[in-house]
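dumping this here so i dont lose it
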């Protein structure tokens, strides 16, 4: 007789007991649906090419390291921005505020007629104005990740303001509901 598997003394539940099925058939549609269940902030990653700013909306962004200060962006290899970041070895990240949905749409390829994005120039890099945070990073390493490349950047400049972020969940925009001031809510584990 075999003992039931346990983690931390608790029995491991069979897949059917998880409240959802865990399929071994990981196709593109299921992949997008499952990964879309992870709520994220929304960023616009920018780089320069021939002296002009270029950008794309991305939610595949994360803190990499506190010491040294690193961040990571994931860019599809077929995206034009991939070539720009690869060539320039620099990028900027603008973390969007709740009222900047139009910028997310614009940089995701759904151009907004008559809109011209407004940038602040920080160390020669374009950072969108009125975001909740901005970061400038120099690429120090890359990692192949299937049809994407992870660009690991050492942060040279960063700043933030108190405002509500634009969120993305299940292919829809969302918002933070909090009764505390934004500056008081945050990761206390850092």
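and the seq i came up w/
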């Amino acid at each position: 007789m075999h003992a039931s598997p346990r983690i931390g003394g608790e029995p491991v539940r069979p897949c059917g007991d998880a409240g959802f099925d865990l399929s071994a058939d990981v196709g593109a549609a299921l992949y997008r649906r499952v990964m879309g269940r992870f709520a994220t902030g929304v960023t616009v990653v920018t780089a320069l090419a021939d002296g002009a700013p270029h950008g794309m909306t991305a939610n595949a962004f994360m803190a990499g390291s506190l010491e040294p200060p690193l961040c990571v962006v994931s860019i599809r290899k077929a995206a034009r921005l991939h070539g720009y970041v690869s060539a320039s070895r620099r990028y900027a990240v603008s973390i969007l505020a709740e009222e900047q949905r139009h910028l997310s749409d614009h940089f995701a390829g759904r151009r907004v007629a008559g809109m011209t994005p407004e940038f602040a120039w920080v160390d020669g890099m374009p950072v969108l104005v009125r975001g909740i945070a901005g970061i400038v990073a120099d690429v120090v390493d890359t990692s192949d990740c299937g049809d994407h490349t992870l660009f690991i950047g050492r942060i040279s400049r960063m700043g933030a303001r108190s405002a509500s972020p634009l969120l993305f969940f299940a292919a829809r925009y969302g918002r933070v509901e909090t009764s505390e001031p934004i500056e008081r809510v945050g990761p206390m584990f850092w």
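The first strand starts at residue 6 and ends at 7.
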